[in-house]
Amino acid sequence: MNLAMIHMSDVNLKSYSDTSYHYEELKSLTRYSFEKVQERVQLKRSVSRIVTIFFSELEKLVPTLHIASMYALLSEFPSAEKIASCHLIHMTKPLGNASKGRYN
Questions:
Q1: Apex CA 7: angle with CA 4 and CA 11, to 5°?
Q2: Is the pTM of this model over 0.70?
């Protein structure tokens, strides 16, 4: 009976569209992606701030801190003292691996 009343009431009902579902999913994924990009920006700022506090010389030596080779270097040698006390061969290994041979 309800279906008949809806049909007779002359209400313009939109039929289900598969594309509207995909648009909603796309909007949701776009929002999620934007949130992740913002989180990444915040994490990069935090890394830069920490490096500036504890290892300010590094920022003057490299074009950017946010490359795989610098992250590998900081993971292996988290302070200027550690880098100063290590042998050059020990430093080039993590740099070479992270940079895919560029910094051998």
A1: 140
A2: no
